[in-house]
Structure formats: structure tokens, C-alpha cells
Amino acid sequence: MSKEKASSRKGFTPFRWLSRMFFGPSRELTIADERYDSPTKLAVKRFFRNPLATGAVIVLLGMFLFVFIGSAIAPVDLTETGSEMLHSNMAPTQSLMKLPDSMKDGVVDISSRGTFTIGVDTDGQVYMWGKYFNISGDPARDVMNIPEEVKNNKIVHVAAGSDHCVAISEDGHVYAWGEYDNGQYGQDGTMIAAARKQPEELINGTIDASAVRQLICGNQVTAILMEDGTIYAWGNDGLSATNLSSVIKHGKQESRLVKIVFTNEGIYGIDENGSFVCGKSSKFNFALVQDDSGKDISVDLFEYVGERKVVDIAASGDALALVLEDGEIVVSGMKEKLPQMLEGERAVSVSAGTRHFVLVTDQGRVYAWGQNYRNQCNVPDRFKQADAVDMVYSSGFQNYAYKDGEFVGSWGLKGYLMGTDEMGRDVFNRIMNGGKMTMTVGAVAVIVSTIIGIIVGCISGYFGGTTDLLLMRVTEIFGAIPFLPFAMSLSAIFQSSDLHENTRITIIMMILGILSWPGLAKLVRGQILAEREKEFVTAARSMGVREGRIAFWHILPNIISVILVTVTLDFASCMLTESSLSYLGFGVRLPRPTWGNMLDGARNALVIQSYWWRWVFPALFLSVVVICINIIGDTLRDVLDPKSEVEK
């Protein structure tokens, strides 16, 4: 009950007394208004007067919206496309597509194969952006540290590999930096015997920079193509360029090459006759094209191209794209559907990222296709209009569009807000979807335990006697079971069986609920024992109300506040238990995420020391939710207790 007194009189109290003494009461009537609130309304008021509890409700509500609405908008990808090994263990960043301002007025080249990008502007200045984790910890091997001689010279060509960079200066010096253990550059390295050595004349001498046609890097390999068709190549060709010798031989004995590209396993090109050059590799002998009905069909690439010349070539990690002289695009090694150009439109140039292709047509429109789980194919609508773009640099998972030498926009992967895990999966997305699973498991387990606990406690407390004795012994048996070991054993038994993942998750929920009801049952029993002796119960019995209805419809509502507090606290406990089971490997299994199994994936010294984001963020989210629930539960217990001293 709250009591408010409203008075129309104002002023200093002694003056009001004197006024009433000599002049009588005022014509304005003083009204004493007493307002009575219902217990529920009063409890709500008292709850929200507590700023800590109010903040906990707001945070918890935000968490619920985040995990349930967010996971519906961006569901987790449990297939292999959800992983990206090139981005494994990447620290939180949003800089992967942050093109330096100096490169927006003109660019010579942009190159990337993974998490970092290198570019050179028209003034010969080299820039790098993105993220790279230096495993060795040696600053000399950090690919993001541009050498001083590169910064101080005018650079005309740059290229980025998976873990190294190469640059050619205007005076013909070839510079390289980053990792070198597989022959990426120089003559050093622990595995140099398995790699093609960098030519001595490039290490200690110079080349004619004006005669360099192309500089490219692959996965630990590098190649320089000269105007006369000569190819300088070095690096781990046994892994990433198995057909290198045969392609070089083609350029020497048949016809010189005019463009070359690296895939993950080989080098390919086109020669001066417009022929596709693959050396001894037969991986791309077949291509995916569209028939007259628009259906994709597989054809022999060489037979399909026939006498037509190839005018451009690009390579992603595992696919090739060829632009023919008649403007047709031919793709080999990629299953994704080709873009549909407008009638009369012809492809002019094609560029490639790690998993996708981008082509520019003669009408200045842009089309992109390939794997799109990092948004690299989401071309902005303005670039789909005529005369919008004349050049696109695709690199890694980003794209940079230029028109008349000026930067006009970019699209693709900006970065990862909370980094990635060992499989290159987005930690933010997995926390969002993992929270949904953890909260769902906790909620269902609490519902199951609450139903069992209320039924057992209510029947035991109301009927007493033999029924009470029997049910309490059963409760004590369940309460004596060592909870976590038994839950682990049951989970292990069901996980070893050939059950669908959703079935196993349902069983885990049931296990948590069935093993966690004894405490609530005893609490309900004690409250029922006190309530059943009151007059309203006697009155209900005298009126002939059935015993079951008295217990569940008359007595139970009177103890609902106690149950509500207990259920709230049990929800947090079930979430922690699910996370504990998953952390120990007995809960929800990967690749389906929960906060618990995400912490399990970070359970080693290397991750704790080097990849802090993999355990800090899941632990932070779990801790915040559990603390908020506990605060809400404790506050509910206080405000629902009439004898509480909180408001005094």
C-alpha cells in the first residue's frame, strides 16, 4: 500500500497555523487521498525502483533480441562454406576493405590472396591494409612491415601471396618480405630444398622494370612475366605450381605468354596467339557454359573455344575464367551459376578474388559470381548501371571499382567484429547463434524441471502420508545422483548412438530437466504444507471442491512468487550446466555452436595466450547473461517478500 497526502496550502508551516488560528480554515479543502495498489503492481514498482535490476532486465532483453532475432536474420552456416581457412584465427578487425585515401585518386595495382592487401598508387607509393597474424613473432617476417627501401623507392609493380609480398621498383630492384621458409624469396629457409630458388640475378642485380609485363604471387610462389615472354619464377612450386615447368616450356618453345595467373595448385595463362595455356595440367579441361535455354552444361574447354581467341584470364583459388574475343565468358572449376548479361552486351575484362569472379562489360556494367558467403558478390546497384565502371580490382574477398582512374566504390568483406576461430568462422555470428542454442537448452530444461518439481512437490505436500513419504524418497534418490558426472554419462551414451543432431539436443534438454527438479520439488512441498492448514483451504473442502483442484488451483497460486524466483535462478544454472557439458565435450557438438563448445574450442594454452578473442567474447556473453538473470532473481525474491526491508 502507498499513501499520498495532497494539500492545496502552500507556504511556511507556522504561517499556515497562524492563519487557521485567526482566520479559520481556507475554502480550499485539503484532501487526503489514500491509494491502494495491488500486490503485483506494487511488486513491479518496487522492482523497477532498483536501478541494478532495471539495468539487468534491459541487458537481458537486449541479449534475447540479439540471439533470437539476430540468428534469424543471419543463421549460422554449418556447411563447409561457413569456414574460411585463409581467415583462421583472425583478430577482430574492420579494416580488410579500408582503401587508403591516397589510392582513391589513381592506382596501378591492388593484390591480395587472404587477409591483407597491398596496392601501389600512380606516384609509386606502396600501401598495405587488412590484418595478418605473424605466427613466428619475428618482426622481420611480418608481412605488414613494408621495408624502408620499398617506402623510399618508386614502385611500379606489387603482388601479395598468402604470406609474402613482392615489389619491383622503377630502377629494376626486386624486393620481397614476409615469410620465407618455403622459398618465397631469398636463399634462406628451413624448407628451401623443396622449393624453386629465387634467381640470383633478381637477388643481387636488377631487371628492366619497363619490360616487366606482369608480377603475380600465389600460395608461397611468385612469377614475373617479361614482355619478351621470359618467366622468372620461384617458391614452393611443388605445392602451388605443379605445372610451372611445362608452362615455362610452352613460352620458350611454342609462343610467348602475355598473361599468367596462379590458382592454389598451378599456373595458367594465355599466349600471343590467344590460346589457353595449361602446361601438363588437365584440371581445367572442361568448362561450364550455358546452352540456348540458359541451362548450365559441361563441355570440353578446348573444343568449345575452338579457333576463338582468349583475350583475358583470371583465377580464383580453384577456378579459371576466360574472356573470349566475341565477348563470351567461359568458366572452369566453379559450380556457381554464371551471370546473365544483357542482350548485346559483351565481356571486356575479368578479375578474380579468392572465391569469386568479377567481370566488366563493354557497356560499363559489373557482374559478379562465385561463393558469396563473405558478400564479395553483392555488387551495389549503382555499378549495375551502364557506364558505371571501367575497371574493377578484385582481391581476396574485396572489390574496388574505378571509373576514369578515380575510385568510385567498393564491396565485399570489411572484416570480423569479434575475429574468427581456427576454421575461419565468424566468432560474432557463432556467438549470436550459439547464444540462441544455449538459452533454448536452458529454457527447455527449466520448463521440464519446473513441471516435474511443481507436480511432485504439490502432490507430496498436499496429500502427505504414504504419498509424501514415497515421493520424497524418489526425490532424495534423484537429488543424491552426482549431477554433472551422470549428465555427462547419459550424454555420452546418446551421442555415441546413431541419432540425428536435433534428437540428441532434445535428449540433452530432457536430461538437464529431469536431473534438476528435486530442489524445486522440496521447496514447493514445504510451501504447500504451510498453505494447506489455512482457512481458505478448509472452506474449499467444506464446499466439496475436489482435492486436486484445491492443490493446483487454490493453493499453488499463493506460492507462485517463490516458484518464479526459483525458476529464474534455475534458468541461469541450466545455462551454466549446458555450457559445462559442451565445454567438456558432452553437450551440443560442433559444428553447431553454443557458448560452451566455443569455450571448449579455446581450451589450450596457445589459444588463451595468442587468440584471446576466441574465449573472451563467449565467456563475456555467458557471464553477462547469467549475472543478469541472478540479479533479476534476487530482486524478485526481495520485492515479492512482504517482510522485505528493501524499501525501508
Helix share, percent: 25-40%
What structural category arises from helix and sheet content? alpha+beta
Number of helices: 19
Largest sheet: 3 strands, antiparallel
Percent of residues in β-strands:
15-25%
What is the terminal-to-terminal distance? 14 Å
| Global outline | elongated
Mind telling me the C-alpha Rg?
36 Å
Protein described:
There is one protein chain. The protein is of the alpha+beta class. It is built from 19 helices and 25 strands. Strands 3-4-5 form a 3-stranded antiparallel beta sheet, with no helix packed on it. A 3-stranded antiparallel beta sheet has the order 6-7-8. Strand 10 and strand 11 form a beta hairpin. Helix 11 packs antiparallel against helix 12 and helix 14 runs antiparallel to helix 15. The two termini are 14 Å apart.
Give the key terms:
25 strands; 648 residues; alpha+beta; disordered N terminus
Summarize it.
With 648 residues, the protein is of the alpha+beta class.
Secondary-structure blueprint of this entry?
Blueprint (H helix, E strand, L loop, with lengths): L1 E5 L6 H11 L7 E5 L3 H10 L2 H23 L33 E6 L3 E6 L4 E5 L17 H4 L3 E6 L3 E6 L4 E5 L21 H5 L7 E6 L3 E6 L4 E5 L1 H4 L3 H10 L3 E6 L4 E5 L4 E2 L8 E5 L5 E5 H5 L4 E6 L4 E5 L4 E4 L14 E6 L3 E6 L4 E5 L20 E5 L2 E6 L2 E7 L14 H37 L1 H16 L2 H14 L4 H15 L2 H14 L3 H8 L4 H9 L4 H24 L11 H6 L4 H6 L2 H27 L9
Antiparallel strand pairs: 1-2, 3-4, 4-5, 6-7, 7-8, 9-10, 10-11, 12-13, 13-14, 15-16, 17-18, 18-19, 20-21, 21-22, 23-24, 24-25
Helix pairs in contact: 3-9, 3-19, 9-10, 9-12, 9-13, 9-16, 9-19, 10-13, 11-12, 14-15, 16-19
